[in-house]
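Worked example 2:
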Amino acid sequence: MDGREATEDGTITEIYSIACHKISAHLQLDCCSSHSVLPWQGKHLMIHSITDPSQKPLHLTGHHGDVSAVSFGKGRDPLMLCSASEDYVIAWDVERCYRKAREGAIASGTVIGTLIGKIVHLSFCPLDKRVSACSGSNMYILNSKKEEVLAVLKGHLGPLTASVFFPWDPNVLVSTSEDRTFKVWDVTKEEILYQSAVLSSCPLLCVYVTEEGRQLITGSADGQVWHHTVLDDYKCRLVMKLDLPNMEQTQRRIQESQAQQISGFGSNSTGDGVMVEMAKPVLGIFTFKPLPYSGHTKERDGSCLWIGSSDGLYLVNLASSELLMALRFKDYPDLSITLAGSLSVTQKTDCDIHCAVTSMFQPRMALWDIRLPGQLDRLCSQLEKALPGQELSVVPSSPPMPTSPLNAELTRRDPKPPKKTGPGPGKPGGVKDQSVVFHAQVKSSGYAVGSQRKMFTPKTNIQKKAQRPTKKSKKIEGLLSEYPSGLAAPTVQHALLSASPTHTPVFCLQYSGDGKQILCGLGDTSVLLYKSSLTGNPSVYTGHSKALSSVCCSHSCGWILSASEDQSVRIWAAGSREPTLTMGSDRFSAPVRSAQFYYLDKFLLLASGSSVHLFLSHLDTSRDDLKRYEQKSFSRLVRRFSTKSGTDITAMSAINDFFSYIVLSCGADRSIQVFDLNVGSVAMEIPESHSRAAHHITQNKVAMWVGSRTVKMVDSNSMKP
């Protein structure tokens, strides 16, 4: 039976599905990059070639009892296979077995264990010289070349469920048990190097160890996943704990919220029905490694794993605790198995994986080919579902609406005439005639002197000095030149300096619009303006009383904006020591987390509390020397936009290099909200977009120092350059 079904997360093709003589729900299956193996008719094995689907399956016989576990070796030349039943443990050379089958002879293996008991799990060491076999509460270490028991490891209080050798040390392995603990063993000394505490109320079913980062991941029968890091002395330190059912429910709520937005219902509705969630055991943990230049984003590199459960496969990013993809078997009705008892996953290519699976309640096994879409295709599909028939583009396609807040203009203040303090001269109580000087003699004004006959004579025929060409530093000239379009992102460190001698943290950074300067906001309340080459002394701007939270340069590069935890916003003219405009804590109810110039410097956009504030401002650098405390600059609030859920805003992004209506914000509730300031409302909400509250968000924008031929504008609706 061949079934094919596609969703936005991938396409599953059922390569084959076979009936068994009895239900085999908890058999250990295995796949490698070239082959898959399944127990067939109880006592036999069937090997299927993944690299050459046209090749006939290879059938192996040798066991007298039902096969309970199979496992491939780590090497590929030769490719080893180990199978176990209650009577024998047999090691097979796969290529030799294929050769014997082509010659018409009966393929045979090497018996390496006899009458050990019912074995539930097998695992080769990295060198394929030893095999661990879990039977009851004991673990047997067998020689893979001949029948020899090298060691018997005892220590668990319950039956073993899995064991894995460490990839970087073939003498160390880890085991899990129904006693809800895992143990790290030294095989040669038969000693326990580390023993975990009781992790769960349910048995631990599987374990996975990755050499990159030395990570150890275990999963339990109730869907809990523990992520440990292995130290040099093989002690394990818990990094995080993942709740797979909770992560799956969170993703489902996000999808339902998006569906409610599409249908016109409010996203805060929870519905009347109560969904009963079934148990989600972790049946297996498998690696996922994107290939170079595969089109997948960096978020998948090195820290992503497939977690197999009874109802689907889940791709999880360990670094961020995010559920990247969910392949639920029930979403593919043409598959012969929708509830798995055991499974195994191997990666063929970046977007192609194979999965061997057994049914939990039916006597059936199957092999699936799963094709994953590229990351860009998935994003486009999600946007099409979230915004059907709507246009939401960073680059506006039409002028602002007549009622748009962006049409607001600032009425300039007329200077007030000086107030009269009393009646004028000649009136009762007025000022009397009096001398306007304090000396007896006054110098003549010159009216009685004859006029000057000879005027000044201008100098002509002046030879101008030849201007010497100014010498430019090669270092600075290289920094200000056009960025090459054929090169990748910079990776080599150019300069390193300390912004403060007291090791003050840098909380915010931004390049100026022309790329010639770098603006830094420090934790000691100061703002530093460096040259982009990081040479020379920076310009220092002080005035805040608490750490900086945001800095921004204007599009004209003439103004500097800063926001602080002291609930104030200040704007300086470039090169001025005193702020031109100060907006104090009386304007905001909470600290300003993000502040920037907006709409080609027409507006000030500030995020404070749960609101985005849109201000108009008039900046005047002139001062009265006698009243320097009085500011001639002023600002006016145009509109305040609040988040749908009322959550505090942690980050904000808007484009100031050209006219754009879109403002993105991240909330403390882990949501992302898209504001359309042309309409003046929230156009889209992505709830629980991250596992933690996001601290930064940005958009693709034009850089003035990049050549025009290398600049690409991205439309968020089509996701195409």
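Residues 15-256+279-291+301-376 form a domain with the Methylamine Dehydrogenase; Chain H fold (CATH 2.130.10.10). Residues 244-263 form the longest helix (20 residues).
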